[in-house]
Amino acid sequence: MSSDAPGNVLFVVMDTVRADHLTPYGYDRPTTPGLADFADEATVFEEAVAPAPWTLPVHASLFTGLYPSQHGADQENPYLEGATTLAETLSTAGYDTACYSSNAWITPYTHLTDGFDAQDNFFEVMPGDLLSGPLARAWKTMNDNDRLRAIADKLVSLGNVAHEYFAGGEGADSKTPAVIDRTQSFIEDSDDWFAFINLMDAHLPYHPPEEFAEEFAPGVDTTAVCQNSKEFNSGARDIDDDEWADIRGLYDAEIAHIDAQLTRLFDWLKERGEWEDTTVIVCADHGELHGEHDLYGHEFCLYDPLVNVPLLVKHPELSADRRTDTVELVDLYHTVLDALDVDGGDPATPGDTAVPRDPTRSLLADDYRAFDGVTDPDPGQAAAPGGDYGFVEYSRPVVELKQLEEKAAAAGIDLPEDSRFYSRMRAARSPDSKYVRIDRIDDEAYRLDTDPDERTDLAGTDDDVLAATERALADFESDVGGAWTGAAAADVTDDAVADMDDEAQERLRDLGYLE
Predict the structure, then answer these.
(1) Reported confidence tier of residue 501, pLDDT bands at 50, 70, 90
(2) DSSP letters along 343-403, please?
(3) Can you give the three-state secondary structure of 224-265, one letter per residue?
(4) Distances from the Cα of 480 to the Cα of 67, 383, 389, 425, angstroms
(5) Angular region, 173: left φ>0, alpha ψ -120 to 50, beta rest
(6) Is 130 helix (H, G, I), strand (E, B) or coil?
(7) Residue 101: enclosing H or E segment and its boundaries?
């Protein structure tokens, strides 16, 4: 980067926001007028691909430049270990760094916040100071033992239930204004800075502020609509067309609140004279399903409303334009390093994996995604030397699965083990096609150029485009450690409480699981 390039980076993740509900992506409701104005001076990417369909592995990829199977942070191992984070690298390079969010996965206990000079988690039930203490150690003890993993599931289930209870109702208070306020305070006290924020409004449950609910979901009772995706996915709860419309209205209201708060932050940066000196990245970590493919939420599949995410970037090297080439969120790690002219690649701890800046993965570089010239390619570069494909990975969602099983059992429903609910998945995606490898049910394949809603599964048919996509996926799988051809064990048992250490047992006693 040149010496007159922006010296700061603001990185915004709108958690659980799907692209087709945003004004810059053609939505017919005015959910995001602020982002529409931002799009006038930013590049809008239409084919951005998330590396996973949920928060933890996506953020670990954003912070390390690694694919999920490389960094290993997932529900069966819910912490990032052995990798140097973007914040660690930037802090060492002299930048002030901050992370503010209200997402329970972005906390010290997962190690995603390692390296940030300033951090706070506004999650209402399990705050960061608790998650970095006894509960974190109990969680790690249980997840390191296969037989105890179900106990860890129960801990998270309790947190989810409590969060839904305390965050619910008409008096629910969004944490987004506090996140924005804290970000402004950090910037005021900093010179060269990197600020990362995650805004959780659009994540279930939906209880938008009244002014936005009145505009986008007038008359909708937030306590009457289905706010638990597992109830629907398990078959325990039906949702008719009118209720889906109410749910989408509440979702839109939450997005509108995000937009208003982001506009407040952007206007403040302009008033301070820092806007021109700031690279701004706005994306979603994943989207959400509202009945498409008979699913609710962001589990158990890799359909485009989840993994084809919004991405808008403002930087002098990028024109105010729209682009339809493949972009991977993994590339944003390198884009931030490039924007701040930091090489990276130095382990924060001896033995850590530390990914150096790679110009072929920086949105700001002339040779972006020219992977055919890379001497030591990563799995995605090796599988797609032309840069045409993005790759997605989804390990078995043990926490979501446990909750799904509980809802099904309460309704007298048996979930088949050979189903998508128990499946691990990987996908290769280009703007024209997608191939999904699934370990318990048949693979899926779609021609996105003619079937953008993924209604016609063409796996097993004679289609040259899909055949090439499947080959790219097979090459990626080979590089990351082999294809998921064998189904993982379905059972997650909890028959070994006696194996837990005293501290872990005491935590469960406090929470009512042991007597």
Answers:
(1) very low
(2) -B---SSTT-B-PBP-GGG-TTSTTTT-GGG-SS--HHHHH-TTS--EEEEE---HHHHHH
(3) CCCCCHHHHHCCCCCCCHHHHHHHHHHHHHHHHHHHHHHHHH
(4) 9, 10, 15, 13
(5) beta
(6) helix
(7) strand 96-101
